[in-house]
Amino acid sequence: MIDHLDHLVLTTRDKQACIDFYTRVLGMQLETFGAGRHAFKFGAQKINLHEAGKEFLPKAALPTPGALDLCFIAAVPLDEFIAHLAALGIAIEEGPVARTGANWPIRSVYLRDPDRNLIEVSERA
């Protein structure tokens, strides 16, 4: 009955640090929509951004910065992404490691965004 994910909502404590991470580190495009709302676009998906204490309604029952564990498939080879992280001085928490993705085996690295959400970036193994 469900075809695919359209968007999800990320709650942040620091809007500017969050925007910097998702655009500069992960390469997503910042979109402004509605009444000054922001989202990160990538592929056919987006992540809507909410600031803690200033969430748009309706909202999750407990919108909490740092509660997400997200896995993204890289648009470039994982080794190229790892080099990009190194050039930016972004620490890898774990990896590269073999994991099981939604549709096939993947090779992943893990890092943290400014709110300490766990971010996994992967390529098909």
Automatic annotation (TrEMBL):
Residues 4-124 form the VOC domain. It comes from the Bacteria. InterPro entries: Glyas_Bleomycin-R_OHBP_Dase, Glyas_Fos-R_dOase_dom, GlyoxalaseI/FosfomycinResist, VOC_core. This is VOC family protein.
